[in-house]
């Protein structure tokens, strides 16, 4: 499942974030890439643990944890703290699949990368190219969102970032370990949760709501790993 979550940061916040990023000291993006993907990766990244990455990442996670759409779709268990990257003219990241496990710096725990998220931080008209191309179950999808919007997609997907041919593309990205490992099971739960919410809004007293909500939780109990 590929999900678009709009409006996590407003225009003023985006402007302040971008001004700060334009002043930052950037490192080569290859430092967090695996052996195979390092050959495909041509971009810049804020070093892990950079104060600005922590600030933006902290605010992002905070908002997602209060976002019903994200919570319902991702069923998050734990996250690898957001990283910030920049693709300038000529920057790209060819097709790859992300490493399955990630260990945050200074942490003993590893995070299984069930889900990937990208938060767009640049106005789509301010740069050419830079689409996030994701091989979905139903074919190839090109994603280029408004600044402040996020896309959530399965960590199992083959994906790439098209070359940027004008301007600069800033983004935050991170991985989530879900309570439910399989994308197909998460999708089923997400669709069921949406249907229950809709029914609850349209027919609040419907007697089937009790059973449907119970069935949702019984499926979640069957599939969740904590
Ligand atoms: Ni990737």
What's the Cα radius of gyration? 18 Å
Unreliable runs, pLDDT <50, ≥5 residues? Answer: none
Strand content: 25-35%
**Main pleated sheet:** 7 strands, antiparallel
Distance between the ends: 22 Å
Which structural class do the helices and strands define?
alpha+beta
**Count of separate DSSP helical elements:** 6
Question: Averaging pLDDT over every residue, what do you get?
Answer: 95
Helix/strand order, N-terminal first:
EHEHEEHHEEEEEEEEEEEEHH
What is the global morphology?
A: globular
Bound molecules: nickel (II) ion
Number of strands: 16
Helix content range of the residues, please? 25-40%
Strand order of the largest sheet: 1-13-9-16-5-4-2
Task: Please give the structural blueprint.
Elements: E1 3-5, H1 11-23, E2 27-28, H2 35-38, E3 41-42, E4 44-45, H3 51-65, H4 68-74, E5 76-87, E6 92-96, E7 101-102, E8 111-112, E9 115-120, E10 128-129, E11 132-136, E12 139-143, E13 150-154, E14 159-161, E15 164-166, E16 169-178, H5 183-202, H6 208-223
Antiparallel strand pairs: 1-13, 2-4, 3-6, 4-5, 5-16, 6-14, 7-8, 9-13, 9-16, 10-15, 11-12, 11-14
Helix pairs in contact: 5-6
The structure holds nickel (II) ion.
Q: How would you portray this structure in words?
A:
This protein has six helices and 16 strands. It has about 230 residues and is an alpha+beta fold. It has a seven-stranded antiparallel beta sheet with strand order 1-13-9-16-5-4-2. It has a five-stranded antiparallel beta sheet with strand order 3-6-14-11-12. A two-stranded antiparallel sheet has the order 7-8. α5 packs antiparallel against α6. The model has no long low-confidence stretch (mean pLDDT about 95). It binds nickel (II) ion. The site of nickel (II) ion (NI) has 3 residues, from loops.
């Amino acid at each position: 499942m590929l999900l678009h979550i709009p409006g996590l940061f407003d225009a003023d916040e985006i402007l302040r974030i971008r001004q700060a990023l334009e002043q930052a000291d950037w490192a080569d993006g290859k430092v967090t890439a695996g052996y195979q993907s390092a050959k495909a990766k041509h971009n810049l990244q804020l070093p892990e643990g950079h104060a600005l990455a922590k600030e933006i990442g902290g605010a992002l996670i905070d908002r997602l944890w209060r976002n019903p759409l994200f919570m319902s779709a991702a069923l998050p268990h734990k996250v690898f703290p957001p990283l910030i990257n920049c693709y300038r003219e000529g920057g790209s990241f060819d097709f790859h699949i992300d490493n399955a496990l990630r260990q945050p710096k200074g942490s003993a725990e590893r995070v299984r990368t069930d889900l990937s998220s990208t938060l767009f931080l640049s106005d789509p008209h301010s740069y050419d190219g830079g689409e996030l191309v994701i091989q979905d179950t139903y074919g190839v999808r090109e994603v280029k969102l408004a600044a402040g919007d996020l896309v959530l997609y399965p960590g199992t997907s083959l994906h790439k970032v098209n070359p940027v041919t004008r301007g600069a593309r800033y983004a935050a990205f991170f991985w989530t370990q879900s309570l439910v490992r399989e994308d197909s099971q998460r999708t089923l739960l997400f669709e069921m949760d949406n249907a229950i919410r809709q029914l609850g809004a349209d027919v609040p007293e419907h007697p089937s709501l009790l059973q449907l909500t119970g069935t949702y939780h019984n499926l979640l109990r069957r599939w969740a790993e904590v």
